[in-house]
């Protein structure tokens, strides 16, 4: 098809570019522009309609019409609403941060987590629960997860916030096309329709509050990487995110985007063989990277089987707090175990750094809490094993989110549809009777 | 800075999009549009000015002015030039394919190669020479390379073709910022200013013909990957290119672009450790991937030390022809060696496929000639070692260019400046006295 220049649909402001097909219809262009304004208000704070128009490259008339639509959707308000009609230039357009939120959830072998984050980035609900995912069947795990999500939906309702979507991160292979979890070796799951199962359970519980928001499923490390994206940091345009849990999840960011690969299976780095004479992995192979850097490996090396830290009832945070305490007290066995895990982490990371030369390797998941002790060993391995000088200039960073990175990322991903096209909000089920 | 919508500088036709900064000056916009027209004529053949305007989303007046500029630069001609003024709609705008060419050159441990490819994709000069790069000092290697390039420049001159640039691919780490070869373990090179050295030598020889075109240096596998890019093939938007030579070079394509990484060092996959009890590598480590899949490994496993195939005077093609002949005759030792190399190739490739889920793994370099025997073993390893079902949907392809992929890619890269901004042609040294 021939593009029509009159419908040139690249809309942008200085920092944000939103592109839609050059053959897009006018409604798509309008949606993209609404999204641009919304992102701009979220990222750079309240401004006058005139400045907003100028900075987004829209004419003032167009911008004013779009702002009115966003007001109608309950997503922004004008600070001096009464005099809006007079077009006073001093009137400030401001995001209604709490109008809408995204929910991120996570299924891991030893814990579940849920968080609801609104448009302004404020956490409006958060919960975690320790589980014994290896011995609990999938239905049991998902029933507990649905409980946690139901609580979060109730809290969102109380706060008067519409839930845009729910994104569930799982430590395993997710078929992005069918939205099923194909394989989660550490959970022992094969071909589980997590999204449909959770939707079903929510309809039975949260459904009492109203219709259930869309539920999607994704790989947890992919979600964790989303939380680490920062368009303002050139060192994060190419990035490797190592997400430590019982196993090891990973995600690769290339050119500012999380690389999903041709069919969405990218990021399976945990089964890189680093120790051919090593231990058997949950995947059936021997000496996979995650057998030496997963939380299980750390606990086995740092503690005895009867150590209270291994109690499955403990949350991840409780375990990590104990490890941090022991490391701070310079407990020899803990420090040696951390050094060993850090060294293996660096050994595998060097393979990815040689292949990809990322600006940053992010230690996320459980690694974040222990970053102080892991990072030196990781850096030492990169310096030794990366062919390019000075480890290719790659720096090692510790995630600011740590074990909450995946749920945070899930919440951000859940908000994406609203930021791409705020008009979807009109079609979303309202879980609350509050004002919008 | 605030973008000015009047200078919206995304120019595109149905298949090609060229973006320049939204704050670009009008000259940059004009250059990008000239490039767009040139690419469009190259990729889709001659057309009338009217259709060209329509398909590139430019007004007819603007397109006509731009076509006139391209005629002036000698890059296109109008088939009915005498009646051009009359604006007959049937007049066809046609690329002058031979107006300009790019030169690609390659330094490998056992051979040198040069090719000149013009805008239409026609090879106008080509040469290869076997060398013993391990025993010849860098100056000796580069002197031989400069000889080959000089011959290619002379041929371009005879053909009446302007040389846009010369890009030299090296099997080693290239510092893209300083344009120096930091480390080429198999050549034994450290910190060699290849571009400056070649420029110097050309000034002394080819310089007699006129000023020397710009010389750049790049990693050879990166160049080989450029030759494999195909925007029309979704399976090639995410791609891993394995470039077999004495060692193993690699390149990763993500989102349709060759991933260079933060500082340009991406693609160093040859030193992934696959066999901790294996042989010593040129890099000083043990059991690197390239020690089991490089041409040296294949020759050592397939032939005795006194086999005539190991004569350093042979070109790569001669060696490969002998191997192909033996494989066709079902020589047991040759087939076993190929199966072994293919299996190791698949073992390492599985690591990258797990991490990146590419649509295609391309067997390039020396692997291409032997693809028939290597591919089954590679596919078998991917099926066994990739966690995602059906090897993640990744297919294994054999390069159509093979050992010439890097020089071809170098020639394409050399033409890039002209395709991005055809006006650079006015500033290029003319090596010829022919008509343009």
TrEMBL record, chains A, B:
Belongs to the ROK (NagC/XylR) family. This is ROK family protein. It comes from Nocardioides turkmenicus.
């Amino acid at each position: 098809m021939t593009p029509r220049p009159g419908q040139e649909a690249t809309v942008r402001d200085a920092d944000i570019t939103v592109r839609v097909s050059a053959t897009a219809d006018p409604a798509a262009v309008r949606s993209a522009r609404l999204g641009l304004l919304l992102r701009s208000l979220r990222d750079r704070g309240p401004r006058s309609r005139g400045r907003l128009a100028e900075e987004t490259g829209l004419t003032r008339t167009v911008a004013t019409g779009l702002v009115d639509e966003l007001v109608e959707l309950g997503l922004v308000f004008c600070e001096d609403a009464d005099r809006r009609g007079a077009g006073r230039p001093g009137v400030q357009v401001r995001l209604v941060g709490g109008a809408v939120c995204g929910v991120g959830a996570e299924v891991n072998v030893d814990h579940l987590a849920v968080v609801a984050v609104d448009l302004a980035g404020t956490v409006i609900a958060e919960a975690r629960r320790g589980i014994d995912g290896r011995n609990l069947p999938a239905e049991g795990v998902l029933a507990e997860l649905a409980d946690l999500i139901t609580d979060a939906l109730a809290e969102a309702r109380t706060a008067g916030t519409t839930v845009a979507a729910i994104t569930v991160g799982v430590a395993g292979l997710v078929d992005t096309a069918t939205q099923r979890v194909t394989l989660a070796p550490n959970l022992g799951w094969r071909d589980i329709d997590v999204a449909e199962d959770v939707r079903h359970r929510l309809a039975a519980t949260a459904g009492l509050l109203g219709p259930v928001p869309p539920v999607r499923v994704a790989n947890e490390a992919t979600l964790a990487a989303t939380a680490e994206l920062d368009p303002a940091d050139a060192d994060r345009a190419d990035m490797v995110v190592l997400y430590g849990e019982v196993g090891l999840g990973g995600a690769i960011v290339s050119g500012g985007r999380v690389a999903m690969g041709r069919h969405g299976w990218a990021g399976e780095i945990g089964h890189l063989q680093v120790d051919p004479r090593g231990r058997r992995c949950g995947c059936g192979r021997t000496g996979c990277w995650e057998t030496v850097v997963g939380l299980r490996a750390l606990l086995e090396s740092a503690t005895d089987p009867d150590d209270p830290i291994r109690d499955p009832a403990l949350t991840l945070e409780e375990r990590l707090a104990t490890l941090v305490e022991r490391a701070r007290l310079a407990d020899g066995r803990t420090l040696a175990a951390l050094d060993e895990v850090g060294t293996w982490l660096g050994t595998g990371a060097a393979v990815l750094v040689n292949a990809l030369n990322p600006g940053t390797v992010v230690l996320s998941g459980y690694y974040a809490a222990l970053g102080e002790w892991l990072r030196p060993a990781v850096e030492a391995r990169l310096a030794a094993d990366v062919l390019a000088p000075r480890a290719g200039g790659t720096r090692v960073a510790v995630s600011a989110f740590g074990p909450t990175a995946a749920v945070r990322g899930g919440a951000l991903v859940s908000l994406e549809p609203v930021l791409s096209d705020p008009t979807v909000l009109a079609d979303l089920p309202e879980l609350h009777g509050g004002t919008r």
